[in-house]
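Re: that chain you flagged

S.,

Sorry for the slow reply, it's been a week of failed gels. I finally had a moment to sit down with the sequence you sent. For the record, here it is as I used it:
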Amino acid sequence: MESMVLETAERLGAANFPATPLEDAGLRDSAEALRRLAFFHAEEPTPALLAALRQSPAGRGPLALDRDDALQAAALVDEVVSDLPERITRRCLAPLAADFTAIHHGGDVRAYPTEGPWMDERVRAEAAASLQRWRTGLETELRRAPFDRLPDDHVAVELALLASLLDRGRAADAVRFLDRHPLRWVPNFCSRVATRCREPFFAGIAILTNAHLDHLRDRLGAVCNMPRSGEDEADIRRRRWTEGRFPRACTCES
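Prediction finished late last night. Pasting the C-alpha cells below so you have them in one place:
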C-alpha cells in the first residue's frame, strides 16, 4: 500500500500542491547548501573547490546550521582548509584525493555512494523506477557536469534533485522525495564515511550532509504539515551525532 501511495504522489508531482516560494519557506539557503554538498560528493577536491571553501567557510553562509553536529562538522572542515598552504595545489590535496577515491570508487570503506547497494535486492528495481519518475522535468539540471557522469542514484545526484525541487517551490514533493529516497540510505552512508574515512575533511562533509537532510525534513514537515511518522525521542537522538560520538579522528576499520 505504501508503495502505491508513493508512486501516485511521484506521478502527480506538484499537481495538487501549489508551489511554495522559497523566500516564504526560508528554503533558498537550503537549496544552495544541497548544491554545495552535492559537488563535494560528486568529485574529488580540487584547488579551485578548496579555494572557494576558504573564501566561503562551511561555518558561515548556506552550509551553516545552528545545531551541535553541524557546528562541529563545519569547524572540522574549516580547520582542514585553514591548514592548507596559502597556494593550494593538487599535490597538497593528494591525501584528500586518495581518500575520495577510497570512499567513492574503491569500496575500501564499504560506504557505497549509490542507493542500490543499501536496498534489499527485491526493491532495487522499484527504487530505480521511482528515481526515474522523480527526474521527470529536471533533466536539464541533472545532466550538467559533474552530475552527468554519475549514476541516477548517486548521493550527489539525489542532493541535486532535491535542490531542484526546492528551486521550484515544490516543498511537499521534496518531503516525499526525502522520505522515499535520501533518508532511507544517506544517513547510513554518511555514518560509515564519518567513522571509516582517513581524512577528517570527509568526516565533516558527511556529518554536514546528514545534518542538512535531517534539518530540512523537519523544516519542510512544518511548512507542509507533513510530520515524520512514528518517531520518538530515541529516534531523534539516533539521527544526530551527539556529544561523545563525534568522530574527532577517523578510523579505517573493516
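What I noticed first: The domain at 23-238 is CATH 1.10.3480.10 (TorD-like).

Talk soon,
D.
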